Amino acid sequence: MALSLVTNIVKHRQSRGNEMSKSAKKPQPKQSRVTAFVTGRPYSLLLAIALSFSTLMLSPLLRSAFLGDDADNSLMTASSMAFLHDSVLATTWRIFVQWITVEGRFFPLAQYTLPLFYAFGGNRLLFKWFILALIIAGTGLFSWLVRRVSHSDALGIAAAFVPTLAMQMMYFYDSLLGFAGLVQLVFLLTVGALLLFTFYLDTGRRRFAVSAVALYVASLLMYEITFPFFLLFVPLALYYPTRRTVKEAARKASPFAAGAVLVAVSLVVMRSLLHVRVVAGAAASAYQLNLNPGGYLRTLAIQTFGALPLSYSSVGSGTWGRTGLFASPLQYLTRFPLTSLIALVGYAALVWLFAVVARAEPDRTPAGRSSLTALAWLGGALLLLPSTMIGLSSRWATELAWGVAYIPVFVAYFGFALLVCVGAYRLVRATRRGSAGIAVVVVLALAAGTLGFTNLQNNRLVVSEWDGWRFGREMIASATERGLFGDSSPKSLLFVANRINSRQPWDVPQYYAAHGAVFSGGVMAASSVDVAKLDAAASSKVADAAGNTVYDFAGASPSMYVDYVADAGTGYAMAARVASATVSGQSIVDMGLQPTAVYLENHPERTGPKDSFGGSAKEGAAPFTLEALGLDPQSWKVASSGTGWQLYVPVASSAPAVP
């Protein structure tokens, strides 16, 4: 069956090419040499150029940190599981059951995340390439769908690069920088189902319809935002390949609606049986419904607005707003001229390429005009439908702000792009004769180029603002492996200063154990301690005159303290043995520390700002030195060193305390 399916797809692609070549009713004007040269190139070459450029424009994500849920899930490695005496499958199963019983969510196909991270083994760069590959694969499949429905090479090319104009990276729960490719996979399933549906509409063969419905149901079992996506199939059923009656279109699209209803009813019944609250109360969960009409419409508008180009950098507000972004595109041109000009010229050239191909295409038959209508409605649906489920979430109704959208906005980017592609195609075709056509192409090229380089630099800055998160995690791992905590003998507690973020997910025993330091008593932030673990690790405790609890660690298994910070080109980590800790409530107000080591990293070649796609776009921190940390160089000596790093230990056991 699989071989037959592939064979049929190939045959239908050939037949579509024949239809495109026969669509002209009138003789076409003679082509110029430039037009003949461009249109004489294989479509696959033009598509490859567009997708390659899109890859370059999205390449800043390759240097990004593990963010969002990925920061926690990336700790799922073989060494971590061995330390915890657990397995990835058992952990996945426990989390899956918890989602069902506590939150009432049933999305079994989204449970691929932990096994995925386990397979990558904590390799950040490999994982980021995987995400980028998913994005480009989805864009390529989207381009195929657009070309197939429209019978237009020009629209197929445009669909391969226009979506990147809208793809904004944010200081938020961002679909490009986090969440293990969830929405990218959902988009692949959605576009795959739409493609198979077009094969069904062309041939009437049930195998294509069944396959399309299966992919759609799979998307429902991966992420709930796809419940209204059955409406995406209506424009195709109504207008592709020719106009149908509403009744006939509804009949062809009805299996998708039935699949959505079946899964939705099953979910409601499951939540009812488990007594999971459906409507939000005072303590609202992200997975409880908010039925306030005004709040719903506001969230719907905010989420949809987030799909528009530069919406985040222009008006992004709230806790996760546009901090650090430049105010004007001209600032990007002057500060990052090379990468900005590459983006400007690249997008402009692709618009010109699109226009040349579009103007050379034959006049459309009524069926061809109907296909453009189908794409316009499909674009509108892709833009609006991903927001509908987010508007029902009680959490996002309060957390989202103008310019700041949640992860389903990734699908909406393609809806916006499709509307732009269809509009630009019609405009270019309508002005293909005369001087007005040249002006239209110039305006479109300049607009795309300006949007393109501005969005590129915004994305670079957003990624760079997370440098401390990425390099802090990487540096403490390197420092640990190089002896920051002394020998490999097990120790009790590790207190962390948490200067990078109030929550650093990698500061857990299994992460340090994976890099050679075992803390059997646990790892905790100094700002929020676990009193039970303190009681177990300390040799004694007393109350002082202020009512605080003073823990004495003398004679107990060694407990350590670490303070560390890093940026793209520099970082430090200071370790000390804990002699005592004074605790008020759950916070440490004073510590007695005996310094044991200082680790410094300095890589000037990484320090920003760099005018390159892989470099940091923000000002780098000044190099860390012993003097900059307030330490007397005479009291420290180099224990070991390498390219760009040094590990210092005290000259004498009476070295001054680490400030």
Write the layout of secondary structure elements.
Layout: H1 2-22, H2 33-39, H3 43-58, H4 69-73, H5 78-84, H6 88-103, H7 113-120, H8 124-150, H9 153-158, H10 182-203, H11 206-220, H12 233-239, H13 246-273, H14 293-305, H15 311-315, H16 329-335, H17 337-360, H18 366-391, H19 394-399, H20 409-430, H21 435-465, H22 467-481, E1 491-496, H23 509-514, E2 519-525, H24 531-537, E3 540-543, E4 549-552, E5 560-566, E6 570-584, E7 587-602, E8 636-642, E9 645-650
Parallel strand pairs: 1-2, 1-5
Antiparallel strand pairs: 3-4, 4-6, 5-6, 6-7, 7-9, 8-9
Helix pairs in contact: 2-17, 3-8, 8-10, 10-11, 11-13, 12-13, 12-18, 14-18, 16-17, 17-21, 18-20, 20-21
- What's the domain count? 2
Total count of strands: 9
Class based on secondary structure composition and strand pairing: alpha+beta
The 3D shape can be described as globular
Gyration radius over CA: 29 Å
Short description:
This protein has 659 residues and is of the alpha+beta class.
Task: Write a structural description.
The chain folds into two domains: 384 residues, no CATH class; 184 residues, no CATH class. The longest helix has 31 residues. The protein is α+β, with helices and mostly antiparallel strands. The chain has 24 helices and nine strands. Strands 1, 2, 3, 4, 5, 6, 7, 8 and 9 form a nine-stranded mixed β-sheet that branches.
